[in-house]
Specification:
Blueprint (H helix, E strand, L loop, with lengths): L8 E2 L2 H4 L8 E3 L7 E5 L3 E6 L4 E6 L5 E6 L5 E6 L5 E6 L5 E6 L6 E6 L5 E6 L2 E4 L10 H4 E11 L8 E7 L6 E6 L6 E6 L3 E7 L2 E6 L8 H4 L2 E6 L6 E5 L3 E7 L9 H6 L1 E8 L13
Antiparallel strand pairs: 1-5, 2-3, 3-4, 4-5, 6-7, 7-8, 8-9, 10-11, 11-13, 12-13, 13-14, 15-16, 16-17, 17-18, 19-20, 20-21, 21-22
């Protein structure tokens, strides 16, 4: 990054603090720049490795909860968790905000990922208590009416107005809360989210968001392998690997199906866990594809 593009300052990470968000550091190295983006509370630092200086990117009311970048490293996406939350799209070269999406979630964003083109973001909302009595009349007690819910939104920020929010859906008490999300590098409309014991596959299909929960049976029981922490698609394939807090790895693949009762989109999403491997004696909390 040329210093003439933006005004930079000297960086002392030790003095800047130690707060970190999910995916809190992202490598933006390219032909145009040698920069790294780091989340540091309610702002992020765009650090230039050549000049050893940085720019503060400000715009969030709350602490940044998650961050991701486009595959071409031209765009940065940051989100926060709390009241009056927002998602901001930044130009990675200049540090200038390009678009802001506000108040789409009650309590902000837990995790997000962008497709390979960097145009559509799947966001997992922060889980919060929801009162079912607002929607149903047959609730017998106040305790029964309160459940946990989690909203999911796909946002195509390259579009304007209401058309940019591609689709929304919610998971309620009978479905597990999801805490991480990754994109399929070979399919621009597919994402996968990870819960403690479940993996959910999503397809941004037009103005709808289709989901399918991966299956695995007894081999995925948490007392055997622990709880899921994070997942990743393997390079240039549709295989997915999920790791656990007890050091296991779970490999997911497609289900062979000739059923005519389901759409091709749903069949394409369906996955089954076909291999479980002990990878480490301790928990694994980060996994990324190599090569």
């Amino acid at each position: 990054m040329k210093s003439s593009t933006i005004q930079l300052q000297n960086l002392s990470i030790a003095l800047e603090g130690t707060y970190f968000a999910q995916n809190c550091v992202q490598n933006l190295f390219s032909r145009e720049s040698k920069t790294v983006i780091m989340a540091m509370d309610n702002y992020s630092l765009l650090w230039d490795a050549t000049s050893q200086t940085y720019l503060k990117l400000r715009g969030h009311n709350n602490a940044i909860s998650c961050m991701t970048i486009s595959a071409d490293r031209k765009w940065i996406f940051t989100a926060d968790r709390g009241v009056n939350s927002c998602v901001i799209v930044w130009n990675a070269l200049t540090g200038v905000p390009q678009k802001v999406q506000t108040n789409q979630f009650d309590q902000g964003v837990t995790a997000m990922a962008t497709n390979r083109a960097g145009t559509t973001i799947l966001m997992c909302g922060e889980p919060c208590v929801f009162n079912l009595s607002r929607e149903r009349q047959n609730i017998r007690s106040e305790q029964e009416s309160l459940v946990m819910k989690q909203d999911f939104i796909a946002w195509n920020w390259s579009l304007n107005g209401s058309k940019s929010v591609v689709s929304t859906t919610k998971l309620s008490t009978h479905q597990e809360i999801q805490h991480a999300v990754v994109n399929n590098p070979t399919d621009m409309s597919e994402f996968a989210t990870t819960g403690n014991t479940s993996l959910v596959f999503w397809d941004v299909l037009g103005r709808s968001l289709v989901m399918s929960v991966g299956s695995g049976g007894d081999i995925l029981r948490p007392e055997k392998i622990g709880h899921f922490t994070q997942s990743t698609y393997t390079s240039d394939t549709d295989l997915v690997v999920t790791v656990t807090d007890q050091g296991w790895g779970v490999v997911w693949g497609h289900v062979a199906s000739n059923s005519s009762n389901r759409t091709q989109h749903l069949i394409r999403l369906e996955r089954v866990a076909f291999r479980v491997v002990k990878l480490h004696n301790f928990g694994i909390h980060l996994i990324i594809p190599y090569g």
